[in-house]
Amino acid sequence: VRFSVAEVRTYERCYSFNPSVTAGPPVGIGWRHIPRLTLRISAVAHSHARDERNLPTGFCPILSRDQREDCLEVAGFSSKDIAAATRSAVKGKNERRTTVQNLEMGKTAEVEEAIENMTR
């Protein structure tokens, strides 16, 4: 399949909720976008698309903490906003960790209860 034109939208950058981020603020895209830009797709673009198919499945470049902070600063977020987003991500990560630990303890308690029931 080939296309002759593509409509491109540029979305706003914002901080998001993603406790899987290793350090710093998680970055996402918002709902607002710049109006559509229609581009003609040349034969060169088609050849680049073929090259990109050789990338690993799910390939997405990972931004460093500094790059994510820079993205948010350029988007107009203050240092305070960025720090709050970072704290929120750490809080979410800790909540996930607690949930996993509680699930593991719950399984242990179930096994102990089953053993007690068998010995009665």
List keywords for this structure.
single chain; two-stranded antiparallel ribbon; 3 helices; 2 strands; 51% helix; elongated
Notes on the protein architecture:
This protein is of the alpha+beta class and 120 residues long. Helices cover 51% and strands 21% of the residues. It has three helices and two strands. The N and C termini lie far apart (69 Å). The relative contact order is 0.16. The model has no long low-confidence stretch (mean pLDDT 78).
Q: What form results from the Cα inertia axes?
A: elongated
Q: How large, in whole angstroms, is the Cα Rg?
A: 23 Å
Say how many strands there are: 2
**Spans with pLDDT under 50 lasting ≥5 residues?**
none
Structural class: alpha+beta
Main pleated-sheet profile: 2 strands, antiparallel
What's the average pLDDT? Answer: 78
Helix content: 40-55%
Which sequence of SSEs, written as H and E, runs from N to C?
A: EEHHH
Give the end-to-end Cα distance, rounded to a whole number of Å: 69 Å
Count up the helices. Answer: 3
Q: Report strand order across the widest sheet.
A: 1-2
Strand content: 15-25%
